[in-house]
Design a protein that fits this description.
alpha+beta
């Protein structure tokens, strides 16, 4: 049989560790109020005016993609999706929403098609590929490079 040490006669005394200043528990040690970090507020800028231009060749700014798998949405049959080029201000607005984690690529494609992002995500995969390929061709060059370099969202 193994010999065990004798039992401890008294309760050990432990000295509590004081939290460092600025930590969430620092208040408990000094009574100082705790400040909680608030996310920075987005600047509330009024949208800048944009002129709707009458382009000389409007047909080059829109592409209609026929769907192999039409569907009903919002009480209407959808058999094709029209994709349009965006104005500079529209792309800038989308970028601001992305920077605030309020948008992704499908929100940009939604602006280009007039269909909500969840509907675009719900397309048959073959139809979705065709619509997104048409939209990709209409993206600004800098964004095409960015989208090509990032994983699909």
């Amino acid at each position: 049989m193994e010999a065990l040490p004798p039992p401890i006669a008294t309760t050990p005394e432990l000295t509590p560790v004081r939290p460092p200043p600025g930590s969430p528990d620092f208040k408990g040690s000094t009574g100082a109020p705790t400040l909680t970090a608030q996310p920075p507020e987005a600047p509330s800028q009024a949208p800048q005016p944009m002129t709707a231009l009458e382009f000389l060749d409007p047909g080059r700014r829109i592409k209609t993609v026929p769907l192999k798998h039409p569907f009903h949405w919002d009480g209407k049959k959808v058999g094709s999706v029209s994709v349009r080029r965006l104005a500079t201000a529209e792309v800038a607005s989308w970028r601001e929403r992305v920077a605030a984690n309020q948008a992704d690529s499908y929100d940009l494609y939604a602006m280009m098609t007039g269909l909500p992002a969840p509907v675009l995500r719900g397309l048959d995969s073959d139809d979705g590929d065709e619509v997104l390929a048409a939209a990709f061709d209409f993206l600004p060059r800098w964004l095409q490079q960015e989208e090509a370099a990032s994983p699909a969202t």
